[in-house]
């Protein structure tokens, strides 16, 4: 039988809108793929009466309560006290936690104030969740059939704590092991992918197949529950094969962070270097590539040629061509990519030129008209895109354009046609 | 007396973690600055029984209920039916809404399927909230002392609907008008700003003064309630003056989107052009600048010189200097900025070179050591930053470095010392 979960977030800053509740999203995703059924999110402020009522309510309607926030050292931090009280437990001092907290401050080279030791008080008999990413430890316990997990609020503590510390403890709730594998898809709209797969998604129960739409691409997550890791993986494999057979080369990776990582790894393997030439994306592609740690071994650099002067001067795009056709055309995209290869001394270069909006350009090209190109050993390819139908927002057009450019490099590196016309 | 609010979000996709509840954050911020007291957020799935219980609960503990989601045309969309039922109202067909929906599809050049007309059924006697940003209209009504507002889920519909449609209706709950002004602060840590202002923030009731920490900078929002706009503005002015007197040149703008907008506007006013030379930020500064629509009139372009070859080849940084000192030093930052001015033909150029991590560079420079520079008519300035103490995450170091570089340009354009040593 599937367990039901409520995620209870504590913090007035959430109710004031100072921060977004990204913990609830990330934990929901993790808990769902464990096979647990998240039925409620709730948020209350740093108020003991309302928090207590919220805990009693959560207890009455879910059998797993995961709290985030309110574990810190200040008098606003009430989560532990309140939950301990609701479940009839005392808070007791845990010297091993106090040691960890002192070590954390020593590592950061900071002075520890005395109130930080408040964080070493935890409910009697609980399972301690060590916090290697901050100071406040979390904890977990079972009381009268309710499973309680308390995590700190800051996302960069909350998520690793959940994955590294809480997950092994929660594993008791799902018999056997849970494994998941995420396929990344680029080149087909989310509604098209969903309508292709909807029937299978509805049929499948173990493993499950769930889609997650992302800006300009899609994820398909396959999750299996089984007695052992090997059995779970054996359940996943045929579904992965089925999806790959259906979507073919649109699946660009499994368990990867995105197109930049895939392009960087494929180039690294083949000993090739990479560069960019960007107009309307304005540095976004270079930014996405250098978001990946270790990009320096492959990525040589980029040119953001926002003005035509820079296209001509730095990248060597023909001035006559720019004068005659303007900056947004297939030839300019091609010359930008080839110019970037030369100027940056790299093996592969991608380029983008187009109209991100909000207004058409001075040549009357419409918002959403974008050309992407790839210059590589053996040729130069150009793609013409019409991205206005996607809502026409500037940031979305730029993200899609960047992904299309990266996908051309990905396809060339995988031995596929980089797409469309070769010049 | 201050009204209490619950934001009730409806949608299984939130509970699966497919999307983050950004509506709840944005609405909380808006509602709080209206002087309303947001006490609860809750999320339930597309399940009539649980939704009904959630509505009854919200009604028992808040006097304003704002719902998001579940107004669409599919059978999963249950919000209107359920709330109408809870408050004893019938759903009735609103022909004027049906016309709007048909017009929307005509404008988008799309075929309208019949089920879209479901969206024209709204609770009897409600106030209709027209949706100019999508198809599902929202609505608002008062029933037995509870104020109900229903908004669509997609953030780019929900937020403009709230501001343009729901706010005027909710104004009845706060007598008079509400005005707010947001000051943006760069160059002092959030805890330092908060400790400087905490006492005043606690004292002030009208206007209120609230801090919002952002990645690498801060916002201070002043919100006043008064009989007229003029009276509200007159309440805000002295508090703004007080904050500006306290923080001085750290306040870089009021009601602006960020440093890039301020830099672009100041450069545009003075008829100057802008360029960038980036190493560890890898295109982020250029991306942030070109996020602003209309950047093209000022921003000529940028060079992402990730490899030393590109620093020397494209930007003309001295090879001897790179060989002797490596890429991360004050001189290289300065030569990059000066090289960008030359290569891009711009009046002002900012540059960044540093170690974003996760590992120290090959010369042994530690993670977080960053140099930013500004080359401008009349000189070149360099700043040395140590950003590791801020958690040491790669993305945070890059964001902070980008903001420091932009802030140097902002300061120069405002006639201030761009900071630190001149070379």
Overview of the molecule:
2 copies of one chain form a homodimer. With 423 residues, chain A is of the alpha/beta class. The first copy, chain A, is built from 14 helices and 17 strands. Chain A has helices at 12-15, 22-33, 48-61, 79-86, 95-108, 155-170, 190-203, 229-247, 259-269, 284-290, 308-313, 319-325, 330-344, 394-413, and strands at residues 4-10, 37-44, 64-68, 91-93, 121-123, 127-129, 138-143, 146-151, 177-185, 208-214, 217-226, 251-254, 274-278, 299-304, 348-354, 369-376, 379-386. Chain A has a 6-stranded mixed β-sheet with strand order 2-1-3-8-7-6, sandwiched between helices. In chain A, strand 16 (369-376) and strand 17 (379-386) form a beta hairpin. In chain A, helix 2 runs parallel beside helix 6 and helix 3 crosses helix 4. The first copy, chain A, is elongated, with a radius of gyration of 26 Å.
In brief, what are we looking at here?
The structure is a homodimer of 423-residue chains. Chain A is α/β, with parallel strands linked by helices and 423 residues long.
């Amino acid at each position: 039988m599937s367990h039901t979960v409520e995620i209870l977030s504590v913090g007035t800053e959430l109710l004031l809108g100072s921060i977004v509740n990204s913990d609830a999203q990330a934990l929901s995703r993790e808990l769902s793929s464990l096979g647990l059924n998240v039925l409620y999110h709730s948020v209350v402020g740093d108020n003991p009466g309302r928090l207590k009522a919220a805990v009693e309510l959560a207890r009455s309607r879910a059998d797993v309560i995961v709290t985030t926030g309110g574990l810190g050292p200040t008098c606003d931090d009430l989560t532990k006290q309140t939950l301990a009280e609701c479940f009839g437990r005392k808070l007791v001092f845990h010297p091993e936690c106090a040691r960890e907290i002192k070590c954390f401050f020593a590592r950061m080279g900071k002075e520890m104030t005395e109130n930080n030791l408040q964080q070493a008080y935890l409910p009697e008999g609980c399972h301690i969740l060590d916090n290697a990413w901050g100071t406040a430890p979390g904890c977990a316990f079972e009381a009268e059939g309710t499973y309680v997990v308390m995590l700190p609020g800051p996302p960069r503590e909350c998520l690793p704590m959940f994955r590294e510390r809480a997950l092994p403890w929660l594993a008791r709730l799902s018999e056997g092991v849970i494994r998941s594998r995420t396929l990344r898809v680029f080149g087909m709209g989310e509604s098209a992918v969903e309508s292709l797969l909807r029937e299978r998604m509805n049929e499948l129960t173990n493993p499950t197949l769930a889609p997650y739409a992302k800006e300009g691409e899609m994820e398909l997550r396959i999750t299996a529950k089984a007695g052992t890791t090997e059995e779970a993986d054996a359940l996943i494999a045929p579904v992965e094969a089925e999806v790959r057979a259906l979507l073919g080369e649109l699946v660009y990776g499994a368990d990867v962070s995105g197109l930049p990582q895939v392009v960087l790894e494929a180039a690294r393997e083949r000993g090739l270097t990479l560069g960019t030439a960007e107009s309307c994306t304005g540095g976004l592609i270079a930014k996405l590539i250098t978001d990946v740690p270790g990009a320096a071994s492959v990525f040589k650099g980029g040119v953001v040629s926002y003005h035509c002067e820079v296209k001509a001067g730095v990248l060597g795009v023909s001035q006559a061509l720019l004068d005659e056709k303007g900056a947004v055309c297939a030839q300019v995209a091609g010359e930008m990519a080839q110019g970037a290869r030369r100027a940056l001394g790299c093996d592969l270069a991608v380029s983008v030129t187009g109209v991100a909006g909000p207004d058409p350009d001075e040549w009357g090209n419409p918002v959403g008209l974008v050309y992407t190109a790839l210059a590589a050993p053996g040729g130069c390819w150009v793609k013409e895109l019409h991205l206005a139908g996607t809502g026409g927002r500037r940031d979305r057009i730029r993200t899609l354009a960047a992904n299309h450019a990266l996908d051309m490099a990905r396809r060339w590196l995988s031995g596929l046609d980089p797409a469309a016309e070769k010049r």
